[in-house]
Design brief:
By secondary structure, the protein is α+β, with helices and mostly antiparallel strands. Helix 1 runs parallel beside helix 6. The structure holds shikimate-3-phosphate. Shikimate-3-phosphate binds next to helix 5. The site of shikimate-3-phosphate (S3P) has 10 residues, from helix 5.
């Protein structure tokens, strides 16, 4: 067994160069393995993310009686048990660090005939679950949680009914929990969103032969149909590619090709924002992979200038804000972010964590309840804490590539939740980065 470093030392390396393949998409991997488990027949998943989050979901499904083979890295053969075939678990189901795993599974498990308990690590145990508990209760589900926080104690055997529900916050996780419960509901489940969010559950339900109608901001499905096994090819995760897109933009002399990156429009807000800041990102070899648009991204160094991030892009780049803070810290002038309060309830409070770390490195950051203003400058060396948040750790590894000194990044082991192999790939591309 390899032990993961708990800290990184990051500093400028060489210009970033080469052709990279980043791992499979986390959101798509979660959905693929869940729907394959519920389908009639055997599905093969290629490009499955070998991260701790998605492996936790696979282990939970195995604990519910689903046979899942892993004949090679990134491959899963899932022997679906049918929508009514899950078996009662023998122990609490551990979602690890994964908010997506817990929220989606809460919808699925609320509809089963048996009881179950969903638990998570320290970070997940602080994340709000009332946002799924409340609408699932409207469907007839019974879930108990102290102060709306994990663990979730799910009382099975409740008949569910379809609802017509408008999400109070833009959240693909909440939408997906309701759609998964909707598979079992009497009548139609109709979800409207204040702003369209990633539509992977809708696309994948359709790919598994389920009758669902959806468009930007709305999804409608009847309960009571079955899922037909199908093979899924998971595209490369845009959110993982984002760290390399920003790093290649920031480091003079860089030119990187990121191959076949998933470019679902609900994920690519960062591309719009970086281009508006002056980035040079070209798309080539556009194709469709497993029903998702993909393309190679060629990123060359370009100087950035600060902007006001247009609100319309915020939900489409919600996971990319840590690395946008890094880009803004190295840009000329100020970058203003508004309308991003959701960042406060991610794996860490990402506004506070990024602001604190950047200030330690000499950058002026003014925090607001739903965003921040970051004034670009020369980053100094120093020691920062990622608070165990994978995307914060990787964002500071990127920022450090432009620093005037060494940056020590604390508590980085959770990078394995979404991007196993980041350190090795980053070093191969030219990052100055090593475990400590
Ligand atoms: C995800 C939705 C987003 C995102 C998360 C993955 C998903 O969360 O931040 O990393 O797979 O549905 P919210 O639904 O909380 O916005």
């Amino acid at each position: 067994m390899t032990t993961l470093p708990n800290d990184w030392i990051a500093a400028p390396g060489t210009p970033l160069f080469g052709t990279l393949d980043v791992p499979g998409d986390k959101s798509v991997s979660h959905r693929a393995i869940m729907l394959a488990a519920l389908a009639d027949g055997v599905s093969r998943i290629d490009g499955f993310l070998e991260g701790e989050d998605t492996r936790a979901t696979a282990a939970i499904l195995a604990g519910l009686g689903v046979r899942i083979e892993a004949p090679g890295a990134g491959v899963r053969i899932v022997h679906g048990v049918g929508v009514d075939g899950l078996q009662p678990p023998r122990a609490p189901l551990d979602c690890g660090n994964a908010g997506t795993g817990m929220r989606l599974l809460s919808g699925l498990l609320a509809a089963q005939r048996f009881d179950s308990v969903l638990t998570g690590d320290t970070s997940l145990s602080k994340r709000p679950m009332q946002r799924v508990i409340e609408p699932l209760a409207l469907m007839g589900a019974r879930i108990e949680a102290d102060d709306g926080l994990p663990p979730l104690r799910i009382n099975g055997g409740q008949p569910l009914r379809g609802i017509d529900y408008t999400l109070p916050v833009a959240s693909a996780q909440v939408k997906s929990a309701l759609l998964l419960a909707g598979l079992y509901a009497d009548g139609e489940t109709r979800i409207s969103e204040p702003h369209p969010t990633r539509d992977y559950t809708e696309r994948m339900l359709a790919a598994f032969g389920y009758p669902i109608a959806f468009g930007p901001g709305e999804a409608v499905m009847p309960g009571g149909h079955r899922l037909r096994a199908t093979d899924v090819r998971v595209p490369a995760d845009f959110s993982s590619a984002a760290f390399f897109i920003v790093a290649a933009t920031l480091v003079p002399g860089s030119e990187l090709r990121l191959r076949a990156v998933g470019l679902n429009p609900r994920r690519t807000g960062l591309l719009h924002v970086l281009r508006a800041m002056g980035a040079d990102i070209v798309e080539e070899n556009a194709a469709e992979q497993g029903g998702e648009p993909v393309a190679d991204l060629i990123v060359r160094h370009a100087p950035l200038h600060g902007i006001e991030v247009p609100f319309e892009h915020v939900p489409d780049m919600i996971d990319e804000f840590p690395v946008l803070f890094a880009a803004a810290a190295c840009a000329d002038g100020a970058t203003t972010i508004q309308g991003a309060a959701e960042l406060r309830v991610k794996e860490s409070d990402r506004i506070a964590t990024m602001a604190a770390g950047l200030r330690t490195l000499g950058i002026e950051v003014a925090e607001t309840p739903d965003g921040a203003q970051i004034r670009g400058d020369l980053l100094q060396g120093g020691a920062i804490d990622s608070h165990g948040d994978h995307r914060i750790a990787m964002a500071f590894a990127v920022a450090a590539q432009c620093a005037d000194g060494e940056v020590r990044i604390g508590d980085v082991a959770n990078v394995a939740t979404s991007f196993p192999g980041f350190e090795r790939l980053a070093r191969a591309a030219g990052f100055g980065l090593c475990g400590a």
